[in-house]
Each structure stands twice: as structure tokens, then as C-alpha cells.
Amino acid sequence: MREIDISRLGRRRVLLPEVVLCREDYARRGWSRSAVEEFARMVRRRVPWHTPLVVDRELHLLDGWRRYEAYRLAYPSDWHRVEVEVAVLECDPSERLLWSARLNRVHGERLSDEEAADVAARYALRLGCEGVLALKREARRLSRLLAVEPRLVLGRLFGPVEPARPGRTPGFAPRPPLLFDPGGFTVEGFREYCAWVADAAGVVGRRAMEDPLAEAEARRAFAALLGLLRERDAAAAS
Predict the structure, then answer these.
(1) Would you give the distance in Å from CA 144 to the centre of its chain?
(2) 157 lies in which domain range?
(3) How many domains does the structure of the chain reveal?
(4) pLDDT tens digits for range 128-186
(5) Of 10, 62, 172, 178, which one has the greatest count of Cβ atoms within 10 A?
């Protein structure tokens, strides 16, 4: 992938609602409310940004999520009329997540090594590599692109199965799904898990639906979520 120089990207002005925020293709999982509130105060004072929002040619947001939310917070009733400057990065739609991670590693509140490793692991799984060796090669390539240690990426994809012998690295095997203690459930954890399920569905969803137990669990989860959404919509309408 080529190097990034935001100052050399083409610029245009668009209405804020034209910018598409797709969580599955954005590197950062969340943001600090206090930081967004500070940005919103800057918006109201008309303080100029040093860098614009970065989007692809279809206006999918790649960098600038906190600033995007700051505009919405600063103008809650008419944010849909706000016009913003964007820098347009020409990239393949399949590489949005990777470009988002690279952009979020070079300026502002940068992605941590752990966050970058999470992105690399998610992206590697999306590629549908044939076999463990191919997956490891892709993980190492992505670790170089995101300037993160390969062990952090491999650690998210594989778990050690035996102690390392002198002079050798430990072996790796696929990490089993995490099982959560119901007492530890949080809204943040729920959001993360939904994003994980969406990524997993894109990789193994069709094959998983051929498994009766996986299909039954998917139907149970969908029914529970659909019930919650219907309750919320009914309450909002009353």
C-alpha cells in the first residue's frame, strides 16, 4: 500500500449526512465523550481543524469519527444542514478498514498497538486465507503496514498450545471463542461483541448456517435482538 500524505489528497465540501459511517470498516471502536464535547465547543467557536475528515470516493468515513460526532453534538437540531470539508482518498472498498487504521495511526489520538493489532486480526480473517500458514503470513504483512509487533496480531488469532523449547517459539492453534460471565456484561462489551459477530458472519457465515447448532444459536440471538428493537420502537411511538 502507498504512503499517506493527507495534504496532497483532493478536497471537496459535502453535507455532513452525505458522509457514511460504517462501523465494520472503521478502525476505532469508540471514542471519549469528553473529547467529542471539547471538539463540539471548538465547532461552535468556529475553530478551524488542522486536518479535514478523510473519506473514500463513495464518502465512507476513514478518519475523523470524533469530529463527525462533534458536528452532530454542536448542531443537534440542524446537523443535517452542516457543510464540511473532506479529503478524498482513492482506495478499494475492500481496503477501507485497513486505510482507516493507517490514518488513525499517524495523527491525533492515535490507535494504540493493541487496537492496531485488533484491526490487523479482523482484516486478516476477512481475507479468507487458506490454511494457518497463509493466515500467519498475512498477519505478519499487516503488522508491518500498521507498525505493530507481529506477536500482538498473532496473539489475537492464535493461542499458544505448548511451552516454547529453548531457542524456539511456542506453537499456535486457533483461539477458541470467548465465553463471558453474565455478571460482566456491559454496553461497551455488547457493542464490541456485535461487531465481532458481524465480522465473523462475513467470513464463515454461509458455512456456519450449514451447522444445525450454529443456525439455532443465530436464530435465538436474532429473535432476542429483534424483540428488543420492537420494544424500543413501540415505546418511541407511544
Answers:
(1) 19
(2) 112-176
(3) 3
(4) 777 788 888 999 999 999 999 999 998 888 754 344 445 544 444 444 333 334 445 56
(5) 62
